[in-house]
Model the fold of this input.
Amino acid sequence: MKKSFGPETIVFPTPVWCVGSYDKDGNPNIMTIAWGGICCSKPPCVTVSVRKAAYTYGNIMERRAYTLNVPSARYVKEADYFGIASGKSADKFKVAGLTPVKGELVDAPYVKEFPMILECNVVHTYELGLHTQFVGEIMDVKVDESCLDDEGKPDILKIQPIVYTPQAQKYYAIGEFLGKGFSIGKELT
Done:
């Protein structure tokens, strides 16, 4: 038997992503979100959902760009802090001791120390209630060379992304390899 939880924001996993933006004065800001995901293959697009009350919301609306920064497990404290503090009253990069880098293709900063970065230009916004969903066309994906596999592709175990459980408010690292996509299921055919 399954227990019903009603309409809740419970799904596993949710990503721990840090959204980089510039404010109206050109100051770099960073905010952690858990509501987001890939939404289109061609053109490649990713969504992030941000509350209108968040400082990042106004930044993205004004600049029409953001970076999506994937922190590794070693930066879980910094990522949590980025979701607690407000860019209105704190220089979060400075407090966390991390380095903002100007995006090469979009008008938004990224975190130098994080292993994976997506540079995104906003192509759509959707008002969903408490949150606004920003659909960003991915202009570039940057991955530290030390986080690539033998074939030169991003390696999830080297990147060590963090996932989050919203209701329990807990962070987790990625676990063991289970099987190859579009392959392991063929064992059932």
